[in-house]
Amino acid sequence: MPPARLENMASDTVLRLDGLSKRFGPVLAVDGVRLDLRRGEVLALLGENGAGKTTLMNMLFGHYMPDDGRVEVAGPDGVLRPLPPGHPQAALAAGIGMVHQHFTLAENLDALDNILLGSEPLRTLRRHRAAARRRVEGIMRRSGLVAPLEVPVGRLSVGERQRVEILKALYRDARILVLDEPTAVLTPQEADALFENIGAMTRDGLSVIFISHKLREVLAFSQRIAVLRHGRKVGEIATAQADERQIARLMVGADTPGIARETLEPGAPVLELAGVSLRGRSARDSLSGLDLRVRAREIVGIAGVSGNGQGALAAVVSGLRRPEAGQVLIDGAPVARPDPRAMIRAGVGRIPEDRHRDGIVGAMSVAENMVIERLDSPEVARRGLLQKRRIRAHAEALAREYDVRGPGIEAPARLLSGGNIQKLILARVFDRAPGVILANQPTRGLDMGAAAEVARRLLEARARGAGVLLISEDLDEVLRLADRIFVIHDGRLHEAASREREAIGLMMAGRAAGAAA
Amino acid sequence: MMRIEPREAPGRLLTLGVPVLSALVALALAAIPLMLAGAPVFAAYGEMARGVFGSLFAFSEVLTRTTPLIFTGLAAALAFRAKLWNIGAEGQLYLGAMAAVAVGAGALDVPGWVLMPLIVVLGAAAGAAGMMVPAVLKTRFGADEVVTTLLLNFIVLIFVQMMLEGPLKDPMGLGWPQSAPILDQGMLPQLIPRMRVHAGLILALVLAAVAQFMLARSVWGFRLRAVGENAHAARHAGIGVNRTMLSVAAVSGGLAGLAGVSEVAGLKGYLTADLSPGFGYTGIVVAMLAGLSPAGVVVSALFIAGVFVGADSMSRAMGVSSYLADLVVSMALLSVLVGGFFARYRLRLGPERPPGRGPGQASGKEQGHG
Amino acid sequence: MADIVQILLSESFWAASLRIATPLIFGVLGALMCERSGVLNLGIEGIFVAGAMAGWMAVWLGAGLWGGVVVAALTGACFGLIHAVLTVPLGLSQHVSGLGVTLFATSASYFAYRTALPNVSSPPRIEPFRALDIPVLSDLPVLGPVLFQQTALTWLALILVGIVWYVLERTPLGVAIKAVGDNPDSADAQGLSVQGLRIGAVVAGSALMALGGAFLTMSAFDAFFFGMVNGRGWICIALVIFASWRPGKALAGALLFGAFDALQVRLQTQVGALVPGQLFLMAPYVLSIIALVVAARRAEYPRALLKPWFKGQR
Fold first, then answer.
1. Which residues of B touch C120 (CB under 8 A)?
2. CATH assignment of B2-365?
3. Quick one: which of A237, A478, B77, C30 could link to A303 by a disulfide (CB 3.0–4.6 Å)?
């Protein structure tokens, strides 16, 4: 993306965020942020997870009411006017479109219906689909973003869904487009293509803000970078003049310690999948005849775009679903009836992808969540009765060791922050000294400090002799932690010959250099 | 502009206060239908109070009425805690009553110390079986248990009528569709001479204590609570969700069955098709008012029984329809629901500005939320 | 066996089927509206009772038949509003709120009826809807007696099937309702009011449900009896799942059910001596459970059903 701007484009300010603040209970998520966006530019909003970027943009779009400050948007005449806060409708009318990180699509409707949703007044007695379709097709041609219009969205791939999301905004005549972590679900090549399309649109006058926590892509795709940390804007710089280390330091507040991964000699296989087949939510998300081996003292990383079978793979290793064909072997012995209990007993520690849904019972206490996998252990329960005192003591010890912070171990677990919930889960998993660890998106949504902690624990476990299966959509994380790297695509695994991002990116898209399709 | 903010953890005061307040609100709201019916409001309340507290007999009637409500209240409380929506307590009650009569009305001539426990156990088993059918349909086929338990109530009731005109019919009943009476040695003993309150109450209180203990301190109770709060996480942690559901279903159905046993073998002595004026459904209100706590069920059952007995008495004295009681009970349910909301959230009139803050100033302590 | 065939070929059988199906059509359409937007409305049984009582009472007090229909619908809408407020902006348990509304609506109706009309030996009656005798069409050979001798309320039900279908499939409002039942964020992000849509759907659906009750007291029968609804509301909840939340299938399901019920009534008179009558009485409920189990496996529930949605919860 060429950093130079077209000189004949007037540097008008199209958007001004003036002193926006937002607090949730005791937490100040955004603190007095000022930001300007100029016409035709791509501004990156960089910060680690939890820095307040999404909250800031949600205030812009009207999902949240700001506690302080205001937003001004330029009208067609170029004059900045205040935007009434708290209403997506107002934002849409002012020409602001937002592509959320978690897609806001109705899966039971087709793409065209999703795009048209809300664009006609509800009182209307007739719909004008044909005319609308022609208009959408025109937009698709001009923007280069194509997606099938008459297929229920539930059947579209992640990349297609994202394009529908952008088309939604363009259909509503968005002149300012906000993209929240747009490349999280794309292969490196898809990300390049997306920003090329965006570049073309900015040349037509579209202004873009994109949110990211990835340093590298911010440097590659933006013209200006604003850095947020703990809810405050700590720096703003033209990308051309930006230095990676300087920006990283702004993002985190200090130099990040590198993670040392020592070379270890792998041992015997601790986890094996032999010919495993399982139908997932879609054809692509299913496994067919999958073979995988994880050995002691190694971390096997599974990279790939979401929706290619990671869910099914994790479900099999977690014991949540039984393979329709094939076997799961732990320490060389096949697991007879794989269910979560059997896997736990066989020594598999699982860090689930969705912490809140699968990881903790939010209404139960921290202590109860720590022992929930050990109800058959005499330390926890004897003759069917819970050993409350022992449980409390043990939980307190674990909380100290794993630095789980919150309102106390008797408090409901849902009161913990995301990072502390993850630490609780780590404590629970590592307490049993498992021989196999499944880490599924373990650092998603965590700030760098918490993410580093998770990485450290995984490496520690590896050094102690465990085998770790790491499934992550964050390619950088896989590259940093894994000894061997596989790419999962359409439910099949391919071992990556090199650790080059380009090559792996191609594999993630299903095109291995020189390999048969 | 109003905003809704979750409270961090509702204090003890709120958790206890809400049900009490809801009950009082419902009682107070009864004034409206009373006025619409043209009855003098204060006199009506007076009659209700007299119907409950006016004499030892009156209070013993309340206790008598409390007994089945504790059973069905426990049945609902335990099931709802596991997010198993057992709305079929009414039918399970009748199944328990049928079993009691089938066994105890002359089929077996055994001494009391054998017959009584047998009636209790088989009655509970019949109720449990009644809940197992919808439970299996849910775990096996994913069929929503709300609808199946509800429909089963109607099926059971028709079945009871069928039985009462057939195999269970009292040969000496002068043609009325009622069952033969339970043998004397099988009847639950009275607690106070010349009063109707019977040993079923003791059984109910004991079971409430047991349920409270099991819920809080046993592994079974832990599993029940985990499955009810987050079945996904429970499953992931190795808890057998279906297994837990089925065992809760059995316990819940058994408790409801005991309500039937208690009414037949403690109070009436024989079975008719109108044995229960909706105890099964009222049990749901009892459970909700108790915040789904077994210990709370005892208190809330007492209250609701008081409302019914009081309203009956008032209705006889003043000619107001006794459906007033049902009205009050349903308003209590809606009040406790709304009250529960206020316990969990607080309303803020905004926009609120914390004192002394402007853009860019330092904030208070942060927790680093993700 | 020959008896069954004979019954199936008789016109009175099909006319009866449609008559029995009518309250179910209203109920299933109403439940479908609520659930499509993401709200389970277990208040349906009570709303049936309230619609039956209020509609009848309005006619008794002189409002005329259509006045009664309007009163019934408004009554249903009011109880629906209670459920909507509890479950949508307050986000309380839809199960408990629905059951609460059923208990409340039922007891309020019984209390009001009993208070207004103290105990008499037989319940008072009104002049119900008469069969609509449409000039030429009523004389058609097969369809005539079946279709064209139904009351106006049955016609209303059939027309409403078409209207509900049209709204859901061909209007922006319908798309919005369907979106809200799948992923409320999708509607919110497009500037629509999620809570407004849900409240509206529940209120409208409840009005439809109440018409089912009104049919019982103003068309099928001419008086209000305690216990007359007898589980029809719950049967509708089962039938909605069976109908995959689609108006066309809802009509088919209700008709199938009506046919089965009409059949068992006729079989009873023929076989009654051998088989206890109660088995036939059980049949509708058993059939509903079977329909539910059969449909449950492949049922695609609206994804957002039973999940409360609050603004700003991202």
1. none
2. 1.10.3470
3. A478
Q: What domains can you pick out in chain C, each with its CATH number? A: 20-119+129-296 (1.10.3470)
pLDDT of residue B3: 61
Residues A433 and A427: their CA atoms lie apart, in Å, by: 10
**pLDDT of the residue at B358:** 31
Q: Please state the pTM of the whole predicted model.
A: 0.90
Domain boundaries, chain B: 2-365
Query: How high is the pLDDT of residue A208?
Result: 95
Cβ neighbours of residue C201 closer than 8 Å, sequence gap 6 or more: C33, C34, C36, C37, C39, C177, C180
Question: How far apart are the C-alpha atoms of A489 and A509, rounded to whole Å?
Answer: 7
Give the Cα separation of A180 and A474 in Å (integer).
16
Residues 6+ apart with CB under 8 A from B10: B343, B344
Report the neighbours of A using a cutoff of 3 or more CB pairs below 8 angstroms.
B, C
Q: What 3-state DSSP class applies to A42?
A: strand
Nearest to C52 by CA among C182, C233, C187: C233
Which tens digit of pLDDT belongs to each residue from A314-365?
A: 999 999 999 999 999 999 999 988 999 999 999 999 999 999 999 999 999 9
Pick from B15, B235, B369 the residue to mutate for testing the A interface (most A CBs within 10 Å). Answer: B369
The β-bridge relationship of strands A385-386 and A381-382 is antiparallel
What does the alpha-carbon distance between residue A307 and residue A286 come to, in Å, rounded to a whole number?
A: 9
Output the six-digit token pair for C31.
Answer: 């439940």
What is the spatial distance between Cα B318 and Cα C267, in angstroms, rounded to a whole number? 48
Spatial strand order in the sheet of A96-99: A96-99, A176-180, A207-212, A42-46, A224-229, A232-238
Q: For chain B, which chains pass the contact test of at least 3 CB pairs under 8 Å? A: A, C
pLDDT tens-digit readout, B19-45: 888 899 999 999 999 998 888 988 999
Low-confidence ranges of chain B (pLDDT < 50): 1, 351-370
- B120's tokens: 């209790």
Give percent of chain C above pLDDT 70.
93
Cβ contact A427:A370 at 8 Å: yes
Residue B71, CB-side half-sphere exposure with 13 Å CA sphere:
36
Which among A64, A106, A121 is the nearest to C179, CB-wise?
A106
Residues from chain C contacting residue B146 (CB–CB below 8 Å): 42, 95, 237
| Look-up of token digits 């942060």 | B366
b/e A259-276 (16+ beta carbons within 10 angstroms → b): eebeeeebeebbbbbbeb
**Dist. CA C305–CA C88, nearest whole Å:** 12
Distance CA C133, CA A251 (A): 80
C1 pLDDT above the threshold of 70: no
Q: How far apart are CA A60 and CA A174, in angstroms?
A: 14
CA atoms in the 13 A half-sphere facing the CB of B243? 9
Interface contact A361-B366, CB threshold 8 A: no
| Spatial separation of the C-alpha atoms in residues B114 and B206, rounded to whole Å | 20
Q: Is A448 helix (H, G, I), strand (E, B) or coil?
A: helix
Helices (H), chain B: 12-29, 31-36, 41-53, 56-81, 89-104, 112-141, 145-164, 200-217, 219-229, 231-236, 241-262, 279-289, 294-318, 323-344
Q: What are phi and psi of B101, to 5 degrees?
A: -70, -40
What ipTM was predicted for this assembly?
0.90
| C-alpha distances in Å from residue A17, one per residue of A12, A74, A487, B314, B337 | 15, 12, 41, 66, 41
Strand, helix or coil for residue C104: helix
pLDDT bin (cut points 50, 70, 90) of residue C184 is very high
Compute the half-sphere exposure of residue C249: CA atoms within 13 Å on the CB side of its CA. 12
Contact A360 B230 (CB under 8 A): yes
E strand or H helix at A311: helix A310-318
